[in-house]
Amino acid sequence: MSHAQFEVLSNQAVAICGAFYFIALLAHLAEWAAGRNVPLDADAAADAAAVSGTASAGTASAGSADTLVAVQESTEKMERFARWGLVATGVAAGVHLVAVVARGLAADPIRVPWGNMYEFTLTASLVVTIGYLALYRRFKLAWLSPVVTGFLLVVLMLDALLLYDPVFKLRDALQSPWLVIHVIAAIIATGAFTLGGMASVLYLIKERWLRNQGDPDRTPRRVGYLDRVPGLVQLDRFSYRVHAFAFPIWTFAALIAGPIWAEAAWGRYWGWDPKEVWAFITWVVYAAYLHARATAGWKGRAAAIIAIIGLLTLWFNFVGINFFFGSGSQHSYA
């Protein structure tokens, strides 16, 4: 295949994986919609209905049996939609990978596929998908599925509509192995920070939702999505673990590999470029998050707020800098 054909393949793969992310999102929304009639502890409810059915007769027994069947059917629907959503996400990730690889093969000469904002965002969103799939079973991330698939769909749409650039040859400053090292570390950290930030956002939403619930026994209601999101302690712990994984990688990317690459490209380790400054601000925010949570006991709401601030500075660094400081940044190409 020619370089132009690889570029077309990459663009087509982006459209296809976006379609699969959309299918996955629909499947997960259907999953939670089907679960509105399933008690939080479906097994316990089924056991209780079975016991009630054997202990009573006539109308009561028939009602219990009907309830048990309804719960079982809704549970099966939930599991079926969950499987479809997970499979669609896996297929989307595979096609997403094809889009990234083909983008690199489209360049002449062949290069790493993160020479501008479009390519970086395309690759970073793939890392979010891979991280989500890798952690899905260990941390039982079914509750995160609609958030992740919705986020990926929106990011890919914005990436293709607003950030797209044709394939071009890298400028001299980017012809360095340190570009590969620096950006790979930054992409991995960005994907992990994004997953942790999602958990922090859900923490604040669920905390507010719990405060507004009042007496849960006063009026019966159906089981909603937030009912199935893990408790605040579990959300806080998951967010902390992901951030603790990402922070040393970001430290290496922003404060070690980045300056080494800058010295090789521009003859100085640090030049107070807008992207360098915001990368350092992001590092400070996440350092404060981890330090406060580990030493000062800032868990829960306070930690979630700091984590979200860190996520905003992170994405502003990669996207906002180019729109507000593009002409004055040596990183304007990315």
TrEMBL record:
<dbReference type="InterPro" id="IPR002541">
    <property type="entry name" value="Cyt_c_assembly"/>
</dbReference>
<feature type="transmembrane region" description="Helical">
    <location>
        <begin position="142"/>
        <end position="164"/>
    </location>
</feature>
<protein>
    <submittedName>
        <fullName>C-type cytochrome biogenesis protein CcsB</fullName>
    </submittedName>
</protein>
<keyword id="KW-0201">Cytochrome c-type biogenesis</keyword>
<keyword id="KW-1133">Transmembrane helix</keyword>
<dbReference type="Pfam" id="PF01578">
    <property type="entry name" value="Cytochrom_C_asm"/>
</dbReference>
<feature type="domain" description="Cytochrome c assembly protein">
    <location>
        <begin position="114"/>
        <end position="323"/>
    </location>
</feature>
<feature type="transmembrane region" description="Helical">
    <location>
        <begin position="277"/>
        <end position="296"/>
    </location>
</feature>
<feature type="transmembrane region" description="Helical">
    <location>
        <begin position="303"/>
        <end position="325"/>
    </location>
</feature>
<dbReference type="GO" id="GO:0017004">
    <property type="term" value="P:cytochrome complex assembly"/>
</dbReference>
<feature type="transmembrane region" description="Helical">
    <location>
        <begin position="179"/>
        <end position="205"/>
    </location>
</feature>
<feature type="transmembrane region" description="Helical">
    <location>
        <begin position="242"/>
        <end position="262"/>
    </location>
</feature>
<feature type="transmembrane region" description="Helical">
    <location>
        <begin position="12"/>
        <end position="30"/>
    </location>
</feature>
<dbReference type="InterPro" id="IPR045062">
    <property type="entry name" value="Cyt_c_biogenesis_CcsA/CcmC"/>
</dbReference>
<dbReference type="GO" id="GO:0020037">
    <property type="term" value="F:heme binding"/>
</dbReference>
<feature type="transmembrane region" description="Helical">
    <location>
        <begin position="84"/>
        <end position="105"/>
    </location>
</feature>
<keyword id="KW-0472">Membrane</keyword>
<keyword id="KW-0812">Transmembrane</keyword>
<dbReference type="GO" id="GO:0005886">
    <property type="term" value="C:plasma membrane"/>
</dbReference>
<dbReference type="InterPro" id="IPR017562">
    <property type="entry name" value="Cyt_c_biogenesis_CcsA"/>
</dbReference>
<feature type="transmembrane region" description="Helical">
    <location>
        <begin position="117"/>
        <end position="135"/>
    </location>
</feature>
